[in-house]
Design a protein that fits this description.
By secondary structure, this protein is α+β, with helices and mostly antiparallel strands. Helices cover about 50% and strands about 10% of the residues. The protein is built from 10 helices and 8 strands. The strands form 3 sheets. A 4-stranded antiparallel beta sheet has the order 5-6-4-7, covered by helices on one side. Strands 1-8 form a two-stranded antiparallel sheet. The chain has a two-stranded antiparallel ribbon with strand order 2-3.
């Protein structure tokens, strides 16, 4: 996907169609292959006084920067949801069901949504409010998704850790425990690669002999049960810690274990639903925000009007065509010393046409 577009507004000199065709021939015709050239059609706007024009010009710059930042925030959300898969991310960067390139190359002002009879100030404020609302909504939805995802990851860690930390509900069975006894209870201990059977009976008094068995094993620990009198449970747990055994504070309760499994399943289902909803929202709102951004560019082109390595050559052709209207080229060709004295006060980057550049580099998505 192309990632750089330049927007230029040049003097019409009578017939816009002829001017466009002349420029297209010079920049992309048989004479040169410097850039693809497309018309960027914008309506006539209501501006008002010169003071109003100056104010709206400054405001449009701020709006432009803000809307661009919101577009990139949405791209970042897509990057998170799609785990940096650039192809999938680009597939979701659609504007009015078009790719970014297609949208820019066929841009038309949305006259149904932003009627040109409104003042530029009104249109800009409406656009800015819409994008601000989208920004607020996306922040809230992302925060909600991240919270649920964090809770799910915490539950997943409990399911996937070693036997010293993981949830044991799907490891143990009812027959591993002495239940409903007035005097006895069964404890669980995660034991590193040490001898257990020769030691557990001597950790405290009142341990039931030969009551321990290995329930499960992983690369780091073996999980053992042991039955003893309830009165020494606390002492036994403390002695386990002293011996570098990991006492697992686990009570066999089928209802509680069922609730834990249900919580995990429901959390997983909720995370998937929120992921799908956020993806749809990001897809839709990217299009809305990007379209708003280009509408701001169109307004800036209107207000300011009186291939990357080819920029210099393109500017050279435009300067040759319109240098008579002033700017850098005009300074070079003027011979009148008095005029040159004033020309030197003009910004050296001033050109006799309006030049805006849009750089939406999707190549940095996967690496950000």
């Amino acid at each position: 996907m192309s990632n750089m577009h330049n927007f230029d507004s040049v003097p019409a000199e009578g017939n816009k169609a002829i001017v466009f065709q002349n420029l297209k021939t010079k920049l992309s015709g048989s004479q040169a292959d410097l850039a693809e050239v497309y018309q960027f059609l914008i309506p006539e706007f209501r501006i008002g006084t010169l003071d109003a024009l100056v104010v709206i010009s400054d405001e449009l710059v701020k709006y432009d920067q803000f809307v661009e930042s919101v577009a990139w925030k949405i791209v970042d959300i897509l990057r998170i949801l799609l785990k940096g898969d650039k192809d999938k991310i680009c597939a979701n960067l659609l504007v009015n069901d078009k790719s970014i390139d297609q949208y820019l190359n066929t841009f038309q002002w949305d006259i149904m949504k932003f009627r040109a009879e409104k003042s530029l100030k009104e249109i800009a404020e409406i656009l800015n409010e819409e994008v601000s609302s989208i920004d607020t909504l996306m922040k809230a939805k992302l925060a909600n998704y991240n919270q649920v995802k964090g809770n799910l990851q915490a539950l997943e860690r409990k399911q996937t850790g070693n036997l010293s930390v993981r949830n044991l509900a799907d490891v143990v069975k009812k027959e591993h425990f002495v239940l409903d006894s007035e005097y006895l209870e069964t404890l669980l201990v995660a034991v590193p690669r040490h001898s257990w059977h020769s030691r557990y009976e001597t950790l405290t008094q009142y341990v039931v002999p030969r009551s321990s068995q290995k329930i499960a094993e992983d690369d780091e620990y073996g999980l053992f049960n042991v039955t003893l009198f309830k009165r020494v449970s606390t002492d036994f747990a403390n002695r386990c810690r002293e011996e570098k055994f990991v006492y697992r504070d686990f009570k066999y309760n089928e209802d509680e274990m069922a609730n834990q499994r249900k919580e995990f399943e429901e959390m997983g289902a909720t995370e998937k639903e929120l992921w799908s909803a956020l993806l749809r929202l990001a897809n839709t709102n990217f299009g809305e925000v990007f379209a708003a951004w280009i509408h701001f560019k169109a307004m800036r082109v209107y207000v300011e009007s009186p291939k990357p390595k080819m920029d210099k050559k393109i500017r050279e052709i435009l300067n040759n065509q319109y240098g008579k209207f002033g700017g850098a080229l005009s300074r070079e060709t003027q011979k009148d010393e008095n005029i040159e004295e004033y020309q030197n006060l003009i910004d050296k980057d001033y050109y006799p046409y309006v030049w805006f550049q849009i750089q939406f580099n999707v190549n940095k998505i996967a690496s950000s």
